[in-house]
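pinned: reference chain
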Amino acid sequence: MQPLVIKVGGALLDSVVEKAKLFETIATLAKQDIAVILVHGGGCLVDEWINAVGLENQKLDGLRVTPKSQIGLVSGALAGAANKQLVANAKLAAVNAVGLSLCDGNSVKASYLDPQLGQVGTCEIGDAALVNTLLATGFTPFIASIADDGEGRLLNVNADQAAQVIAQLVGGKLILLSDVPGVLDADKQLIKQLTPTHANALIAQGVIAGGMKVKVATAFETAKALDGSIVIASWKQPDDLLAFATGGTCGTTIEP
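pinned: its structure tokens
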């Protein structure tokens, strides 16, 4: 069965009950011999750390601007505090988690995305050996969205895009989880199925904007690359993962 790649956002870190339920669901999937990889961001924690030292948080088209002066804080928050907190919490549900970043095992190849964004990277598949070895031996990789440029410098990668590349790396099914049930229309109603034409219309109207615009764009790229549908759903309803992993539906299905 295909591995299930789950992307979660930083808001999950502060959601104790939902986080526990999600990890219980991941443990259930493991008992059903469904391998899971969790890819995470941690924007809320990064915001806190940057504000705490008196620096400014900046966004450009839904992506975090990451100057060289801030990459240490960003990587420390994501690959350090957030990653290890998630691993520690997962252990309470008997999930055999291993904390990693995109740097580890040459799993991805990263490059600079846009000079205006600073130390922000885009990535493509690299070597699957480390991740596949962990999956084959019963571990659940928890991967923070921090990569490197191959010359010793760290890069902040959008976690949705990181999850896309990890899904491609292992040939897995991808579900993007956030604190909303999926993509919503102008009336805040869930869109159960989204095509490129419909998405472009909603983007033009400003209905899909900011972080969701990035998420939707990444989902379409991934769906095309994997030649299969991608799901955007909520971590507040982790039981949906069980249905999705076995061929069911939940959230918004993104068609290639």
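why pinned: The mean pLDDT is 91. The longest strand covers residues 120-125.
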